[in-house]
């Protein structure tokens, strides 16, 4: 069963075709990677799925429902959450408040309930805080719970972004270069975390990543973009030996003389 279906999607910015005739499926419960050289259209694709951009053509289906025309908040409410290539935390807010902010889209109390400090609002806020603290414990963020996000080590900021995404209770989690800037040890820990997230939260994971070891270790399927088009798709074993992928990353000479293996 497919949770996400991208159908012949295209997006153009002036004379630049960012993505062109993108067509692929993401199976429920899978870990799927989108890879490709810089400028291949990977982040544009994520922005289209999450409603930041609207496609010029084609359709994007989530659980059979079209996402085209929906604002990012409506896409998130349906069950899609993401992290960003460049970390986008609320720098001056504490760790706990960064995650609490993400939960407000799920709370039922309105502005007047909050102003009047109604009992149901207090109960809802306590439950939300308990859930937030559970996420922070799961991601080993408790030692920094009251620390401003800007003071956190880089790898911890990445985990906080994931905690904030999980607070929306997503079905599909999009990770945009989650290993960027990480040490080998942090990257290994991240790969283990992504597997645990998929299993423990019953998630489907779609990630963009340049670290090919991480991609090959955790992905069940890989989609390869180059110049806005899909040039290959398949299992890690199939992608590893595909001449089109080797050429996109290393050039034609690597394919011709067999220097890539």
Give a written overview of the molecule.
The protein has 261 residues and is α/β, with parallel strands linked by helices. Among the domains are: 1-27 and 46-70, no CATH class; 221-261, no CATH class. The protein is built from eleven helices and ten strands. It has a six-stranded mixed sheet, sandwiched between helices. Strands 2-1-4-5 form a four-stranded antiparallel sheet, covered by helices on one side. β1 and β2 (16-27) form a beta hairpin. α3 runs parallel beside α6. The longest helix is centred in the middle third of the chain and has 20 residues, at 119-138.
> Which range best describes the helical content: under 10%, 10-25%, 25-40%, 40-55%, 55-70% or over 70%?
40-55%
How much of the sequence lies in strands comes to: 15-25%
Question: Unreliable segments (pLDDT under 50, ≥5 consecutive)?
Answer: none
Structural class: alpha/beta
Query: In one word, what is the shape?
Result: globular
Oligomer: single chain
Radius of gyration: 20 Å
Order of helices and strands: EEEHEEHEHHHHEHEHEEHHH
Number of strands: 10
Largest sheet: 6 strands, mixed
Mean pLDDT: 89
From the N-terminal CA to the C-terminal CA, the straight-line distance is 34 Å
């Amino acid at each position: 069963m497919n949770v996400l279906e991208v159908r012949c999607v295209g997006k153009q910015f002036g004379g630049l075709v960012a993505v062109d005739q993108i067509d692929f499926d993401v199976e429920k419960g899978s870990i799927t990677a989108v890879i490709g050289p810089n400028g291949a259209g990977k982040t544009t694709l994520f922005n289209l799925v999450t409603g930041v951009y609207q496609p010029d053509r084609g359709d994007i289906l989530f659980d059979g429902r079209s996402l085209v025309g929906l604002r990012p908040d409506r896409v998130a409410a349906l069950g899609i959450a993401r992290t960003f290539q460049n970390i986008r935390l609320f720098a001056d807010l504490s760790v706990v408040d960064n995650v609490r902010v993400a939960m407000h889209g799920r709370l039922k109390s309105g502005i007047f309930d909050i102003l009047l400090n109604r009992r149901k609002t207090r109960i809802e806020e306590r439950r939300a805080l308990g859930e937030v603290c559970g996420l922070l414990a799961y991601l080993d963020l408790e030692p920094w719970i009251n620390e401003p996000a800007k003071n956190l080590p880089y790898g911890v900021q990445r985990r906080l972004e994931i905690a904030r995404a999980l607070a929306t209770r997503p079905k599909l989690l999009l990770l945009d270069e989650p290993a960027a800037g990480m040490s080998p040890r942090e990257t290994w820990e991240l790969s283990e975390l992504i597997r645990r997230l998929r299993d423990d939260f019953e998630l489907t994971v779609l990630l963009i990543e340049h670290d090919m070891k991480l991609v090959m270790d955790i992905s069940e399927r890989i989609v390869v973009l180059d110049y806005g088009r899909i040039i290959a798709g398949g299992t890690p074993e199939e992608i590893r030996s595909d001449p089109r992928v080797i050429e996109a990353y290393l050039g034609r000479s690597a394919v011709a003389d067999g220097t890539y293996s």
